Amino acid sequence: MLKVAFYASIQNASYLIVGDYFSGKIDHKEPVRNIMTTDLSWSPDGTFLLFVDLGIKENDDMKINLLNTKTGQVSHLSTFPDGNDGQGNGLRYTQWSTDNKYVLYSPRADNSQYAQDYVASMDGIVQTMDGFYGDWLSDSEIIVDTRNGNTFDVEKNLKDPFLVDGFRGVKPEIVELTQDFIILEPHLRDRVEAIRYPENLTDSVSWDYAVLINNKVDLITFSSEIKNAEIWKLMSVIELPDHQLSIEGYGNFEAGNKIYTDFRVIVDRENTPAVVKEENLYGYQEENLFAYQVKHPAAFSPDGQLTLLGSMVQDATWYHIAFTLQDMQGHELQVDENLKQFNAITKNYVRIADLGSSRTHQFFSGIAFYWQP
Predict the structure, then answer these.
(1) Mode of pairing for the β-strands spanning 319-327 and 306-314
(2) pLDDT, tens digit, 9 for 90 and up, residues 17-66
(3) Which of 82, 99, 146, 210 lies at 20 to 30 Å from 179 by C-alpha?
């Protein structure tokens, strides 16, 4: 079952809609202000949904709320001033702990006074970390600042229990932390490299740069049929069951007589590197095709065999969103335009988001998916 959450209008009132993507059945309809930011994030088990609301009243500050999708209860986590003439700046990023107990989020604020990280437990207790740019360290409850290696123990509410000193050496390359790897920004252009975590996460000596770099491995290489492979950046790194990763990349690849700009490959931590073959490439380059018209991944089935791809399409009146369900062989199984299966809505606020920020884990704003195992 594929769950979806998105912002929409129903009879000129604005709501957060949560429902079944395929049937269009609405599970929750939460009133929100009609001028809003578009941040949504599911917990790993699908129980909670973090969303941003500017509030019902015009003078309300921006609120970070948590919807319990089992009970329908909404709890308010924190409030921070709206910093962009009533529009709100939203969140820089949202990251959940793998045990579903905590969510890490950071407001995107013009005023540096509010540029800080928050971590909230599911019972509404919020802790503040000034000056952090954090991410969860492996599957622990330790948050690390990927710029300088400072750490924060959420369970103990303790700052800097140890220092991840090696991050200072690889800092310019770090792009994503997963349960098993520190994935590096591609710099060799023809492969994706990663660093395995030390066995003892809290041992500062194990985080020395010279020790850390010895754990570097190749995650992805390219088959001999792919010529002139150049990875420009990683666009999405998503955890799948059994310690598998779905990795999306953007660059320039030649296979046969086609030029590709995107690739996707499933990586198994026990079998690296994974080889990118022609069938892992999709979205081959078309003349004069705008970035928002290219199909980008929005959700993956738990086994990684189905991908929901989204893009903007144009009709006689305007641009609207379109989603395509596709298998690993590239066969289109279902195409839905403009979320029409939710026939009660009059307008949705879904759009193509930042095309190239793996930290957001998605290419769309105003919508978020959860595919139940």
Answers:
(1) antiparallel
(2) 999 999 999 999 998 875 555 678 999 999 999 998 875 555 567 788 89
(3) 210
**Looking at per-residue confidence, does 199 or 295 come out higher?**
199
Which two tokens mark 7?
Answer: 């912002």
Spatial contact of 139 and 44, defined as CB atoms under 8 Å apart: no
Residues 6+ apart with CB under 8 A from 317: none
| Radius of gyration (C-alpha) of the chain in whole angstroms | 21
Token pair 């957001």 is at which residue?
A: 360
- Closest to 27 in 3D by CA, of 15, 44, 12: 15
Angle (CA) 86 356 365, round 5°: 35
**Res 284: pLDDT:** 63
Which are the contacts of 287, defined by CB distance < 8 A and separation ≥ 6?
none
Q: How far apart are CA 130 and CA 107, in angstroms?
A: 12
**What φ, ψ does residue 358 adopt, rounded to 5°?**
-65, -20
Its pTM stands at 0.84
Mean pLDDT of 272-280: 88
Query: For every residue of the chain, which 3-state class applies, written as one string?
Result: CEEEEEEEEECCEEEEEEEECCCCCEEEEEECCCCCCCCEEECCCCCEEEEEECCCCCCCCEEEEEEECCCCCEEEEEEECCCCCCCCCCEEEEEECCCCCEEEEEECCCCHHHCEEEEEECCCCEEEEECCCEEECCCCCEEEECCCCCEEECCCCEECCCCCCCHHHHHHHEEEECCCEEEECCCCCCCEEEEECCCCCCCHHHHCHHHHHCCEEEEEEECCCEEEEEEEEEEEEEEECCCEEEEEEEEEEEECCEEEEEEEEEEECCECCEEECHHHEEEECCCCCCHHHCCEEEEECCCCCEEEEEEEEECCCCEEEEEEEEECCCCEEEEEECCCCCCCCCEECCEECCCCCHHHCCCEECEEEEECC
pLDDT at residue number 353: 62
Q: Residues 6 or more apart from 340 whose CB is under 8 A from it?
A: none
Computed over every residue of the chain, the mean pLDDT equals 81
